[in-house]
Specification:
Layout (H helix, E strand, L loop, with lengths): L1 E2 L4 E5 L12 E3 L3 E7 L10 E10 L7 E6 L5 E6 L3 E9 L13 E11 L7 E8 L4 E8 L5 E6 L16 E6 L7 E10 L21 E4 L1
Antiparallel strand pairs: 1-2, 2-14, 3-6, 4-5, 4-15, 5-8, 6-7, 7-14, 8-13, 9-12, 9-14, 10-11, 10-13
């Protein structure tokens, strides 16, 4: 799905959630919560699998990690943590396990646009993007290193293992975020950027968004 403003094909603009919505999620103990949303019309592959963890809590019962996807609040993915809490969030797009069957051969990068980053404790936040063709995987890690809105550009030419991946048959995309203590961030979109001049040649069928029955599965 193309965005005229940013000349990209959207993986997720966070304008769609499962019904009934499983968000927000607040974790006040060392735990992992998985949320599997399907039947999403504005998500590449039609499904979003979130894994949110609280990995450290200085004071159990007082410290917490909160995660939310808020389509009615500017369409964002939002994460916040108290001063003594640390966690992480992994997003997986894989067509509900059936694969994306997406052609990235005319694409240059994946762009993750942050509307907010508070740079807690003056510590960078690592972000890792991975792509897979079902057999081989390539990945790249970058870091947010200053406060405020910014976009991380994950150029495919810099991915480790990219030479082993069939870019014409991408089956999965994952985004892993590792905020430090007391970090807050907000993501507005995740998208794929085409090579210059290739947009008119791209078949929209390569990025058809799968529909299907809506369901939710949450495990604590």
């Amino acid at each position: 799905m193309a965005s005229a403003a940013s000349a990209q094909y959207l993986i997720d603009d966070f304008s769609d959630v499962d019904d009934p919505t499983p968000w927000p999620v607040t974790i006040d103990e060392i735990a992992t919560v998985q949320i599997h949303e399907t039947g999403l019309n504005h998500v590449l592959g039609g499904s979003r699998h979130s894994t949110i963890r609280a990995t450290f809590l200085a004071q159990h019962g007082l410290d917490y990690v909160t995660a939310a996807i808020v389509p009615n609040f500017g369409m964002v993915m939002d994460y916040s943590s108290s001063s003594g809490a640390e966690g992480d969030w992994n997003l997986l797009y894989d067509g509900d396990g059936a694969g994306l069957n997406a052609d990235f051969s005319n694409m240059t990068e994946i762009a993750v646009a942050f509307d907010l980053f508070d740079y807690a404790n003056n510590q960078d936040m690592p972000v890792t993007v991975s792509i897979s063709d079902g057999n081989s995987l390539a990945s790249l890690s970058l870091s947010l290193d200053h406060a405020g809105p910014q976009t991380l550009h994950f150029s495919f030419s810099d991915f480790d293992g990219i030479g082993q991946v069939d870019m014409s048959s991408i089956q999965g995309v994952a985004v892993f975020l590792e905020p430090v203590l007391a970090t807050d961030f907000r993501i507005g979109s995740i998208g794929v950027i085409p090579t210059p001049g290739s947009m008119a040649l791209l078949a929209m069928g390569s990025f058809a968004l799968a529909g299907g029955r809506r369901r939710r599965h949450t495990n604590a």
